[in-house]
Amino acid sequence: MLRNVLFRYCLLVLVALPIGFLWLYPQVLWCLRVSKSADFQLLKGADEVYVSRSATKKQQSLLRQHTQTALNRIRCFWGDRRGRAILIYCPTQANYEQYCAGGEGAGCSVGTPWGTSYLVLGPDGNDIDVIAHELCHDELFSRLGWWRVKRQIPQWFNEGLALMVDYRFSNPSVWEQPDSATQMSAGLGETTITAFTHQSMVKLADLETTRDFFGGDYFHTMLAYRTSADEVARWLAVVGRAGVPALTSAISNGRDFAETYRRLERSKRRNKQ
Ligand SMILES: [Zn+2]
């Protein structure tokens, strides 16, 4: 009898959980059904890119070029690409708000606990930097999994890393030309690190969660982006491009983020002495 009740209870939870998730996040349902939607079509010459039928020929052609360049940037930055996100381009705000909760910013990532992820691009999202930024979030997500990213990766690192391939906030020379990056790192002593910390009016410790990062006003979010980009650029200039996959593979093997982040930097500095 008790076994029967428990079985029914578990069955109810199993059915209620995904329904509850989709009810709380209706944009996930829209994304899941994009391939069946009469308003969207697959972009010709690109894999897994859905474009609204209202997009002009020019917008479609630009999207094809921008996606290709952004994908190349991701492959170069990470060494290879493991992300499998599906891109959805909504050229109108109304469309964008349906697929991305709130419809803020130029693009957003919609991830599910079971692994599928979508990158939704809004009216301002048909842009190499925006696409590369969102693809970088997806890359971290696919290498570490949704749960690990949520539990272990501070938001400042998640955003800071995405900003390294988003040249609105960073300089490509930090990682695209390793030689100049090495020179940069050689010049970055403890004084510079302290200067970076003092320059920013927000501490990294106060940018750990999504709420910390995006919960304030526009000025706070911009400052949060700037602080994160400065910190990750500083770290990247020391550890080099190989430091990024080295960090994620250590974390996926069970290592702690903060400890690995510091250890990679320490050992690189030691080797240079
Ligand atoms: Zn971001």
Structure characterization notes:
With 273 residues, the protein is of the alpha/beta class. The chain has 2 domains: 17-151, Zincin-like, CATH 3.30.2010.30; 153-272, no CATH class. The protein is built from 13 helices and 5 strands. The protein has a 5-stranded mixed sheet with strand order 1-2-3-5-4, sandwiched between helices. Helix 12 (243-252) packs antiparallel against helix 13. The termini are far apart. It binds zinc ion. Residues 133, 137, 159, 162 line the site of zinc ion.
Secondary structure layout plus pairing:
Blueprint: H1 2-24, H2 26-32, E1 40-42, E2 49-52, H3 57-78, E3 86-89, H4 93-99, E4 107-111, E5 117-121, H5 128-144, H6 146-152, H7 155-164, H8 178-187, H9 190-199, H10 210-214, H11 218-239, H12 243-252, H13 257-272
Parallel strand pairs: 2-3, 3-5
Antiparallel strand pairs: 1-2, 4-5
Helix pairs in contact: 1-2, 3-5, 5-6, 5-7, 7-11, 8-11, 12-13
This protein binds zinc ion.
Characterize this entry briefly:
It is built from 13 helices and 5 strands.
Number of helices: 13
What would you say the CATH architecture of the largest domain is? 2-Layer Sandwich
Largest sheet: 5 strands, mixed
Strand content: 5-15%
CATH topology of the largest domain: Zincin-like
Number of strands: 5
Number of domains: 2
**Which stretches are low in confidence, meaning pLDDT under 50 for 5 or more residues running?**
179-198
* Backbone structural class: alpha/beta
**What small molecules are bound in this structure?**
zinc ion
Q: Mean of the pLDDT scores? A: 85
* Oligomer category: single chain
Work out the radius of gyration: 20 Å
How much helix, percentage-wise, in residues? 55-70%
Distance between the termini: 71 Å
- Large-scale geometry: globular
SSE order in H/E notation?
HHEEHEHEEHHHHHHHHH
Which CATH first-tier class of the largest domain would you pick? Answer: Alpha Beta
How are the strands of the biggest sheet laid out side by side?
1-2-3-5-4
